[in-house]
Amino acid sequence: MASKADAKDDVRAQVLIVDDERDHAETMAEALRKPGHICTIVNGRASAQDELRMGRFDVVVTDLVMETPRSGMEVLALVGELQPTAATIMVTAHGDIPTAKEALRGGAYDFIVKPLDLVVFRNLVQRAAESVLLRHQNESLQGQVEAAYGFEGIVGDSTAIRQVIDAIKQVAPSNLPVLITGESGTGKELVAQAIHQHSKRRLRRFVPFNAAGQAESLLEDQLFGHVRGAYTGADKDREGIFEYGDRGSVFLDEIGDTPLSMQPKLLRVLEKGEIVRLGTNDSRKTDVRFISATNRDLRTMIKQGQFREDLFYRLRGAEINIPPLRERRDDIPLLVRHAAGKFAKELGRAIPTIREPTMMRLIAFDWPGNVRELFNIVHRMMVATRGDVLDLSSVPDEIHTRDGDESAPGLGSLAGFGLDRLEKEAIRQTLAMAEGNRERAAQLLGIGERTLYRKLKEYGLR
């Protein structure tokens, strides 16, 4: 859809017209082409289905009654399935107004009654097109806000992190157990919190718990609770986290460290929603959304007899993998600025200026500790720097490239690859550092802007 942001009259929509009366379809198309809309005409449900699969439309105008009295309703259902962002307008006769109202309840934008007043019809399509444009703009703005300020604290705009965010939004409304995988420091608890905040349980408790390094007896007590007299010192009943988190979400971090003897009890929570406190045989009901995380390879642990296969598949109702920071270097400038702003506020200082060589050095580093390590380093840099500029002298000695070349972002990790791969990676990372500014990126690379533009097309970069 082409438009000017400040002129709604300039909205130009892609319109699909579905009508088995060819003359009537042409009349509608002609009325819409005058203000500049682009119209495609088909004459039945089957043809509409083909177009909806192959093309992209902002507005669909469909006659209600065609091959059958329900043909228009079937087209409406197809739009909802194949192009849910499009607005559908139903064209109906007076006697079919009840069915048209049913269509509104089914997601149609509006309906119009024959014989058409072409001016009213044109205005209705224009309003529908504007509503679609506004929705697209809002979604785009939301994406920009999430990139700049983070989605539930998850900062990044790389393809990899957008896929993580999309997965969160997809699984959050359900009650599926979710297994979050990834290296230490990638932000698995943030993802778990985001799932909870976008679920139907968001008004209930989110209870995080780390299973690593716990003695088995203490772990069982913390998870399932105990009754009075269960052991020496148990002078009163105590609920465990599964009861405490009832009707909310429980996040078990480092699930791979759970002792094998404890795993059947976790399976019982997942399968039956039941727990048994220490010191009794009586079961209690609990209703929790089960979210777990691990930095270990559970499949390998299953082969080694260290993790139950049936528990693994129950935990993995859905799986979200968080890539390590070295695989999404595009996000490093956003993360560095986010961390600098956060710590500047804590320290009561102005947000520092980050010199380009400093950012290049940070982009080049492989970050074995991932986002957690990056935040710690930026905090150290802020504390150690008196002024409001972070330059190379602010960077700790351990932050360097693997091959010792401190001027080439990330190229140490590409040793042994062809020159084309190296050039593509250098351009990609320099563009990220320059925040997409081609003129600035060309200057940093020491090439002309036209040469850079040609390289971008050649390598399929944006």
Note down, in words, how this protein is organized:
- With 462 residues, the protein is α/β, with parallel strands linked by helices.
- It folds into three domains: 139 residues, 3-Layer(aba) Sandwich (Rossmann fold); 163 residues, 3-Layer(aba) Sandwich (Rossmann fold), CATH 3.40.50; 133 residues, Orthogonal Bundle (Helicase, Ruva Protein, domain 3).
- Helices cover 45% and strands 16% of the residues.
- The longest helix is centred in the first third of the chain and has 32 residues.
- It is flat, with a radius of gyration of 29 Å.
The geometry reads as: flat
Number of helices: 18
Residue-averaged pLDDT, rounded?
86
Tally of structural domains: 3
CATH architectural grouping of the largest domain: 3-Layer(aba) Sandwich
- Oligomer type: single chain
Strand order of the largest sheet: 4-3-5-6-7
Q: Helicity level, as a percent range?
A: 40-55%
The CATH topology of the largest domain is Rossmann fold
N-C termini distance:
21 Å
Poorly predicted regions are 2-9, 401-417
Structural class: alpha/beta
Question: In CATH, what is the class of the largest domain?
Answer: Alpha Beta
| Strand runs, count | 18
Strand content: 15-25%
Largest sheet report: 5 strands, parallel
What is the CATH homology-level superfamily of the largest domain? P-loop containing nucleotide triphosphate hydrolases
Keywords:
single chain, 462 residues, alpha/beta, Rossmann fold, Helicase, Ruva Protein, domain 3, five-stranded parallel sheet, 18 strands, 45% helix, 16% strand, disordered N terminus
Short description:
This protein has 462 residues and is α/β, with parallel strands linked by helices. Helices cover 45% and strands 16% of the residues. The strands form six sheets. It has a five-stranded parallel beta sheet with strand order 4-3-5-6-7, sandwiched between helices.
